[in-house]
Amino acid sequence: MAPGTPLTAPLGSLRHTGGVTSDPIDAALAAAEQRYVDRRPRTRELHERASAVMPGGNTRTVLYHRPFPIRVAHAWDGCLEDVDGHTYVDLLGNFSAGLYGHSQPAIAEAVATALADGVGPGTHTAHEVAMAEAVCERFPTIERVRFTNSGTEANLMALSAARVVTGRERILAFRGAYHGGLLTFPDGPSPVNAPYDVIVAPYNDPAAARRLLERHADTIAAVLVEPMLGAGGCVPGEPAFLRTLRQLTAEIDALLVVDEVMTSRIGRHGLQERLGIVADLTTLGKYLGGGFSFGAFGGRADVMGVFDPGRPGALPHAGTFNNNLASMVAGRVGLTEIYPPEVAERLTARGDRLRQRLNDVFADAAVPFQVTGVGSLMNVHATRAPIRTIEDVARSDPRRKRLLLLDLLDAGYYVAARGYLALSLAVTDEQLGGFVAAVERIVSERAAVLTP
Ligand SMILES: Cc1ncc(COP(=O)(O)O)c(C=O)c1O
Predict the structure, then answer these.
(1) Which distant-in-sequence residues (6+ apart) come within 8 Å of 449 by Cβ?
(2) Of 158, 163, 325, which is closest to residue 225 (Cα–Cα)?
(3) Which amino acids bring their CB within 6 angstroms of ligand 1?
(4) Gap from CA of 288 to ligand 1 centroid (Å)
(5) Dist. CA 70–CA 220, nearest whole Å
(6) pTM of structure
(7) pLDDT digits (tens, 9 = 90+) for 134-150
(8) What's the CA-to-centroid distance between 261 and ligand 1, angstroms?
(9) Which residue, 193, 201, 153, is CA-closest to 173?
């Protein structure tokens, strides 16, 4: 079956008959969930096996959703096939790390060629030099770079560097920010966060940031900020807010650390360049490993110089796989050959158009949904109210959003359970057209239940 082909009878035939609830949205959700379960016996069986050996059958929390998540057997281009044989257009692209699709031939070939020379020599190689050159050339604020295994690690290292360089302890971060599993601030710090001394400020509120930074000027080592709240719901940072952070950190001699793990794919040189912000340190990850595990932190040569192992008293920065061949080779081929600045600009514009089309569909159907984001990164919310902060995101109606997403899965379109999409280069215009048409059909057939 072609990806995107509806897997089911028209949604109009989905009517809950269990009589458990009289609330139309609950009834529609129960029917959609039952249908999801009925169509996935093999997925369910594997989930039960997985649950016997992993808590919740899961080893990456974000992938989990009730009643059990899809489990993929095969992926190619911009498509997925689950273990029950259902195909999906992959609109999530591994949470933005899958920018190149699942079977980019130039990457596959370059990695195979490099690995033929030995999988993990455990030494310096020419490949990491080429990758570091590509990163420094692409991102103008990065004068020196070091590689890690993940974006989380990159942020942890950047914060540690800032604390050593400034001789201060505290970090200012923002409510709704996600900088990795150990640096999450959904509504204050998460219980599994690394034990940094963090002040959590409201996002997109320059006056509050000013107050806090002035009050704690002597103790703040760094301000850590995403130029768009990513996992927090693709909430764009406002230029005035980000400019204030740049100005204030300079005034108090703290470092501005801009987390571009998600947003470095935006525009020609990442989102901070688009917004005219110059970070002291920038963190990277996701697609830059060409589909393999990756993270990087870099920036001012004087700051990064503290890691120069040739210097007396240098800071250590360890990691068995920091310069692993697959990430270095795939990352370099991806960044220089497949995603040069002009392609990045085009994908950003394509994402902007998709977001506009979806917002038009929601407006025309008069259903309370909207899509926020920047370029190829976007998030669906079940609310019409303007979204500038994580508190605004929290006003989205979870049941209505879930119903839309279950219907989309049923129609053969995969997006994250939180409503997140990260457009990859492998998704075709035809597939995107099919997706927009599917959204249009669902909101028209479901208009009554999708509107409170
Ligand atoms: C903005 C941001 N920072 C950091 C991270 C953590 O990256 P990783 O999952 O590679 O540890 C993510 C991952 O989603 C992210 O979106």
Answers:
(1) 24, 25, 28, 400, 403
(2) 158
(3) 95, 150-152, 155, 178-180, 226, 230-231, 259, 261-262, 285, 295
(4) 12
(5) 43
(6) 0.95
(7) 999 999 999 999 999 99
(8) 6
(9) 201
